[in-house]
């Protein structure tokens, strides 16, 4: 059996155990949910794209809203303070959405990098153990 075949079998067995699916020596028992690095990267990129789009478009009316609410307030209209309250609520919610998008993007990027580093470490350790076997 080649290293790649053995490594694939070990990875598959570990994945099925992690997903709570019993390991079948005949190769069955595939997990029903699988996420790949390209999937995670695509989701992270969408979150980043939403962040940049929303960051640009969410706050452009702030100065005009402030001016209009001050003017209405000065003229004695209660809608001035209501308009400012509405803007403040919108701003707070927009900042929360921006923060969530950034968090999703950063977390998924870290997950992809961490997984790749972990795979490299496992492959290196496994190769070293195979080398050590030959020197016994």
Strands, count: 0
List SSEs in N-to-C order.
HHHH
Mean pLDDT: 80
* Rg from Cα: 27 Å
Q: How would you characterize the overall build of this protein?
A:
By secondary structure, the chain is an all-alpha fold. It is rod-shaped, with a radius of gyration of 27 Å. The protein contains 4 helices and no strands. Helix 2 runs antiparallel to helix 4 and helix 3 runs antiparallel to helix 4.
Secondary-structure map:
Layout lengths: L2 H16 L18 H21 L4 H13 L4 H56 L2
Helix pairs in contact: 2-4, 3-4
Kindly list the characteristics that best describe this protein:
136 residues, 4 helices, mainly alpha
Quick structural overview:
This protein has 136 residues and is an all-alpha fold. It is 78% helix and 0% strand.
């Amino acid at each position: 059996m080649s290293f790649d075949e053995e490594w694939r079998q070990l990875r598959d067995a570990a994945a099925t155990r992690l997903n709570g699916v019993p390991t079948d020596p005949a190769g069955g028992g595939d997990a029903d949910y699988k996420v790949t690095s390209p999937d995670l990267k695509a989701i992270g990129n969408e979150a980043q794209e939403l962040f940049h789009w929303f960051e640009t478009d969410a706050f452009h009316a702030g100065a005009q809203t402030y001016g209009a609410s001050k003017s209405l307030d000065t003229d004695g209209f209660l809608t001035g303070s209501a308009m400012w309250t509405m803007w403040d609520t919108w701003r707070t919610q927009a900042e929360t959405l921006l923060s969530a998008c950034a968090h999703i993007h950063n977390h998924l990027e870290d997950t992809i990098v961490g997984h790749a580093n972990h795979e490299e470490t496992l492959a290196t350790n496994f190769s070293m153990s195979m080398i050590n076997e030959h020197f016994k």
